[in-house]
Write a structure and sequence with these properties.
The protein is of the alpha/beta class. It is built from 22 helices and 6 strands. The protein has helices at residues 27-38, 42-51, 54-63, 76-87, 100-110, 127-138, 153-156, 169-178, 191-198, 212-216, 223-250, 252-256, 265-268, 273-294, 296-314, 322-341, 348-375, 391-413, 416-421, 429-447, 455-461, 463-479; strands at 14-16, 92-99, 115-119, 144-147, 161-165, 180-185. It has a 6-stranded parallel sheet, with helices on both faces. It is elongated and about 90 Å long.
Length: 480
């Protein structure tokens, strides 16, 4: 690798791209998502703006949103290198196709750029125009350029030296052909691995609830029904992953202010927003195709789940109490989905038990988040209508709801419905003791600040929860 002499370095300006280079995100897409979150119907308005040109689209979107540039996922390795170049006396120029408002805000925040070249309502600083402006301003071959994409090849062809950031192997090879590469900053995380992480496969365990109906009805030995339920499970996993992607895209500003969620793939910039937006319809379409095989009734429940989850992402999650009730409904819908595959209606006992139990667990999740915020000396939960002072009342709601679910189970065990299925009915009272212990333990851990994730996911990784589950299963077998 060739290096500039100390006398040359200050005289050669270093021009730096923004999106995908200086920041590991796309500021236009982020601004568009902010606008869509406020009013989803603005998608159609954006199409009208686009008819007047991309520059006009950027102007209209950024004029209606305020992007928090202080929390953007900056490429810290590159930024540290730029700081050294500036200390050495080199002029740094931010040159980007992003709108002038965003570019100026980024430059003001970082304080390292002497000049900003960006898009306005009349000019879109695309690759060719960017190259021409830099050639006019500094002269062809009289500047170095920092970029990341195939579009940047036009600029690299006219610059003196190239600095390649986050580029694919093909783009990096083409850049080396177009210009002498001074420095290279490759991506540290595979975008495909990151998108799988964003799909949250560890959350798929929740979808095992679709098997509850056939387990209770003791129809798990019917092969066709078992296969259909497995397909339903897969469909729910794909559908829920599409919603997780939507949720993470809508929650970018809030996630970046959270001590743990800021490490999520989209919030940290490990995967492009565009890839996530393309993955959403693909996952949803696959889930619908599989759901059609599982049965039309199941498809209806799945679509209902998707609509309610979208409503949660756009609105319900920001309303105190309504958010946890919505989560409880979504858990219960998984059980209803399993019943739909079997062509049966679940009992009122099961639906009531599910609503109370999962309301308690959703409350525990909120409690744990606020407990973590309390340790960080925060007050308001970002993106939520909760504050640290709500901890006592949330605990009361959650514990009460959890033990009411135990009461529902006790009443169910004493009903004629159980007598028709289980011969040793009284043995099932052990289930109430196990459930009381497990719910009490969940809330005890939450109050101690030891519950750091969704209680349902926690249960899939907790040894004691496995013991409780096995004991419960043995109790059911003994009651037959």
């Amino acid at each position: 690798m060739s290096h500039m002499s100390e006398n040359q370095k200050p005289r050669i300006p270093l021009c730096v791209d923004l999106d995908g280079t200086l920041v590991n995100t796309d500021t236009l897409l982020e601004s568009a998502i902010l606008l869509i979150k406020v009013n989803p119907l603005t998608v159609f308005l954006m199409l009208l703006w686009l008819l007047r040109g991309k520059a006009y689209l950027k102007e209209m979107i950024t004029a209606r949103t305020t992007l928090d540039v202080t929390t953007l996922p900056y490429n810290q390795t590159l930024l540290d290198w730029l700081q050294k170049q500036r200390v050495a006396g080199r002029e740094l120029v931010l040159v980007t196709a992003a709108n002038q408002r965003i570019a100026s805000a980024v430059a003001a925040h970082l304080g390292v750029f002497s000049q900003v070249i960006a898009s306005t309502d009349a000019d879109n600083i695309s690759a060719g125009i960017k190259r021409d402006k830099l050639d006019t301003l500094f002269g062809r071959g009289a500047y170095d350029y920092v970029g990341n994409s195939r579009d940047d090849l036009l600029v690299w062809a006219n610059c003196r030296r190239a600095v390649v950031v986050n580029a694919s192997p093909a783009v990096a090879a083409a850049a080396a052909t177009a210009a002498e590469v001074e420095e290279s900053f490759p991506a540290t995380v595979s975008p495909w691995r990151a998108i799988v992480t964003a799909m949250r496969p560890h959350q798929w365990s929740k979808n095992l609830l679709v098997f509850v109906s056939i387990m209770i009805a003791q129809r798990y030995n019917e092969f066709d029904l078992l296969v259909a339920t497995v397909l339903a499970f897969i469909a729910f996993c794909l559908c829920s992953s599409s919603v997780y992607l939507i949720n993470d895209l809508l929650d970018l500003p809030a996630d970046r202010k959270h001590s743990e969620k800021r490490h999520r793939p989209f919030a940290s910039g490990q995967v492009s927003l565009l890839l996530g937006m393309l993955a959403i319809p693909v996952l949803l379409l696959l889930s619908i195709i599989i759901a059609l095989v599982a049965g039309p009734m199941f498809l209806g429940v799945l679509l209902c789940y998707f609509v309610i989850t979208l409503s949660y992402s756009f609105y319900f999650k920001r309303v105190a109490l309504l958010d946890v009730l919505t989560l409880a409904v979504l858990y219960t819908l998984r059980i209803l989905a399993g019943a739909a595959v079997a062509g049966e209606m679940p009992s009122v006992w099961l639906v009531s038990f599910s609503m109370f139990l999962f309301t308690s667990l959703a409350m525990a999740k909120r409690y744990a988040e606020l407990k973590s915020l309390e340790h960080e000396d925060g007050e308001l939960a970002s993106g939520r209508d909760y504050r640290v002072t709500d901890l006592p009342i949330i605990a009361q709601f959650g514990v009460a709801s959890g033990y009411i679910s135990t009461l529902v189970m006790a009443l169910y065990i004493d009903s004629s419905d159980v007598a028709d299925i289980y011969h040793n009915q009284r043995v099932m009272w052990l289930l109430c003791l196990l459930l009381m212990y497990w719910i009490g333990r969940i809330w005890l851990l939450a109050s101690r600040g030891a519950l750091h994730q969704d209680p349902v996911v926690f249960a899939t990784q907790d040894r004691i929860s496995y013991v409780v589950f096995v004991l419960g299963l043995l109790t059911l077998l003994a009651a037959r």
